[in-house]
Amino acid sequence: ALEVLFASYNAIERVSAVEGLPLRQLHLYHNQLTDVSALRALTDIEQLYLHDNLLESLRLDTFVPMLELKTLTLQRNRLRTIVTGNANKPLVLPRLEQLFLQYNQLPHLDTGLWRMERLRVLDLSHNQLGYLLTFLEELPALRTLGLHHNPWHCGWLFGMLERVAARELDADDGSIGFDEEASCPGIRLDDRLCCNENASTPDPVLLLVSRTGIVDELQQQIRGAKRRIETLEEAQRKQTHQFGELAGRLATIEQLCTQRPTDTN
């Protein structure tokens, strides 16, 4: 069966008719793709290479059917918009370990509903990001984070760097620095990280929308936990009643066994 397909450097503009292919690896980098929605049919894929194409917008829920997906490369496209999917519905990619989004044109990115429990590497460098709506608490396995070469808001960046230090993440290991002073109009923290106190700040409405999905999910989990507790309590009540009946029977039997026969003489 065909498990690995190299189709890079072919000026491919559109992908279709991939249903039923048992691919584990698909190399489509250095083409002219503007839409990859048809790839959702590749449910066995583990490594998907889509970098160096012409993607301007992307729905991440395209990859949700790919339950085995571990590596996804999207760097050096023209991405300005990444949509998680349906509003307030968590985006679950259970095996994804590496996600590369560097060298795009992203001004915003909402990770609040990302559920990628194994994601270890996330590269957001070389975009137009001023802030994220979270501090990436939703990515518990994260170990390497690329933040450099973005016009971060200083308040958000300082908060993020505190969490990077607390979680002992490997952040900003890129070797390319800013070539000119003008390329960092704000505060330069090192050769790669720059922030601006006048940069865009999180919109409270967007922040509320982002958090609403998280709150809804937590409320569902709480309701489920309450139902399980009620079930356990009911089972405990039944067991207590049964134990009481059994104890009563045992006491009766014990009493009968200890009674002496009445002397009739």
TrEMBL record:
Keywords: Coiled coil, Leucine-rich repeat, Repeat, Signal. Residues 215-242 form a coiled coil. Gene3D superfamilies: Ribonuclease Inhibitor (3.80.10.10). The keyword Transmembrane helix does not apply. InterPro entries: Leu-rich_rpt, Leu-rich_rpt_4, Leu-rich_rpt_typical-subtyp, LRR_dom_sf. Pfam families: LRR_4, LRR_8. Transmembrane segments: none annotated. This is Leucine rich immune protein (Short). It comes from Anopheles maculatus.
